[in-house]
Amino acid sequence: MTYSCWYECIHDRSTRYSIFDVIYRCKNCDGLLEVEHDIEALKDHSAEEWKQFFDQRAHSKAFPYGSGVWGKKEWIAPSVRDENIVSMYEGNTNLFNARLFGQQIGLPDLWVKLCGNSHTGSFKDLGMTVLVSVVKQMIAEGKPIHAIACASTGDTSAALAAYAAAAEIPAVILLPRAKVSTAQLIQPIANGATVLSLDTDFDGCMKIVQELTEDPTIYLANSMNSLRIEGQKTVGIEIIQQLDWQVPDWIILPAGNLGNVSALGKGLLMMKALGLISHLPRIACAQAANANPLYLSFKKDYNEFQPVKAKKTLASAIQIGNPVSYDRAVRILKAFDGVVEQVSEDELANAAARADRTGLYCCPHTGVALGALLRLLEKGFIKKDERVVVISTAHGLKFSDFKVQYHQSRLEEVTSRFDNPPLELPASYDAVVKAIDSKKLS
Predict the structure, then answer these.
(1) Rounded to whole angstroms, how far apart are CA atoms 158 and 161?
(2) For the whole prediction, is pTM greater than 0.85?
């Protein structure tokens, strides 16, 4: 069976474009575009057959199906030829049974999806493999694309630089100066991208990159490009697959530019349309209180949206005051009976540190999601007998400075309640024994 997909305007479903067109918004109304699939054609396989296909491919050595994204190629970008696929075998990341942390907070059925256990250390790999593969095919078919560009707070730039390097396509990265961790900054530099560190915030970088990519030879890689959404939507499919095709009660994720929210919902809606699940989970979006435009809109029932000037937050990847994918995210939240919660800098840092004490190693954005979980439990939105999955978007090693400063009690707006600094001692057996005794290890 031959499957197909195309762009559709989110406002006018009769307006369609090819995914191989250089286009990011509808030519008629300037609305965002979404990739849509021929669902009726996909129904030529039953739900059970699709489950079997996806399970068989999960650890396949046959390129590209061992990828957590390309193992679902028919649902993602079926018209991309295999020779143009740029894959690092992304996805298939661990669904961590956070049993101990769950017991401590009174939620025994808690799981954490470790999307940071990926090639460049974040969930952004899931979307970038699709976008770069489509661009590679466009170039192979004669489109004059000279570079791929993005604005980033760190993780998007790392993913773009790595996949573009593997595809031999130049990458241009716009970063807000001094607002990205050292570990994130060095990734695109190491992969040979042209890195431009601008005296602005993410929203300022985003404005410039949109102007830059009005030149059709420079392709836009930010999440307003819905090719990214197609890859990222596999995270929800993968969660349910790893839970033996059972739907959790809640999925909680940190939210900044809001592409990940719409991606999560899109994959789950596709599963329901094709009969792999019978009902939908609820979705909770977590925002830092210092960058909370979605939360403020949620409190007004989405009747009003005002961009904010994002203040500095430890969760730098979601320090975004004017999210591009707001409309798409709101539509998903309404469809999933979703909620939005905000957390302070103190809450996010201590939630991450507390989870670390149970074997995790959380980035600050995961701390935002865990902090929101604690708030939603306290408010009674989440019940103690429900199954909850928290999406961890990046690896904690990308934010080692955050960890070090937490345990040195040097973070602004944070009182470190789970700090564990090393004890500096003389090289003395007695001093070591005394220190161990003081810790009361038994």
Answers:
(1) 5
(2) yes
